[in-house]
């Protein structure tokens, strides 16, 4: 399965590497290689970094902390101190480097730098005014979190081409056969 970056925030996109959280979970970060591929697909690094099982465990812990923190922000409940500590520990590292090279933008660093950039994006979101825009996709069984930047703040699906299209097609079929 390919990675998608439709959440409106890199931290939420990392959290989105688990699908169907309340059902049969789909983990897109199954191996250290998957994690390395994600850093390039996310535009954090130009070259896949070395990644170990320990790195994968650290990235998964960050991913789950971001998901729980964003869910708390969405629900208007207090954020867990341990989850904040996990996020802040990752964010304290130097972020991925962005330079202007002869052929354009060059992004470099190691896996820790890529995770630091991701954690910083999540911290900016969760600690700022956009946290109130966090929504969860209404399409079953999707559990993806995203930012609702629509004009009226009435967006219902994480992505209109996927979940939204399926939901609208199902509603149309129900009306035709109901």
From TrEMBL:
InterPro entries: ABATE, ABATE_dom_sf, Znf_CGNR. It comes from Nonomuraea thailandensis. Residues 134-176 form the Zinc finger CGNR domain. PANTHER family: BLL6575 PROTEIN. The lineage of its organism: Bacteria, Bacillati, Actinomycetota, Actinomycetes, Streptosporangiales. This is RNA-binding Zn ribbon-like protein. Gene3D superfamilies: Jann2411-like domain (1.10.3300.10).
């Amino acid at each position: 399965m390919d990675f998608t970056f439709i959440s409106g925030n890199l931290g939420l996109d990392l959290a989105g590497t688990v699908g169907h959280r309340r059902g049969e979970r789909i983990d897109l970060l199954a191996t250290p290689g998957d994690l390395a591929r994600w850093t390039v697909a996310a535009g954090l690094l130009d070259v896949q970094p070395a990644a170990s099982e320990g790195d994968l465990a650290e990235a998964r812990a960050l991913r789950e902390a971001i998901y729980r923190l964003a869910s708390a922000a969405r629900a208007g409940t207090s954020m867990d101190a341990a989850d904040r500590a996990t996020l802040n520990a990752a964010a304290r590292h130097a972020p991925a480097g962005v330079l202007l090279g002869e052929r354009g933008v060059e992004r470099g660093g190691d896996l820790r730098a890529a995770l630091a950039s991701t954690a910083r994006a999540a911290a900016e979101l969760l600690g700022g005014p956009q946290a109130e825009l966090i929504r969860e996709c209404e399409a079953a069984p999707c559990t993806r979190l995203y930012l609702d930047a629509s004009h009226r703040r009435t967006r219902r699906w994480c992505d209109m081409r996927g979940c939204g299209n399926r939901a609208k097609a199902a509603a149309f079929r129900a009306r035709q056969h109901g």
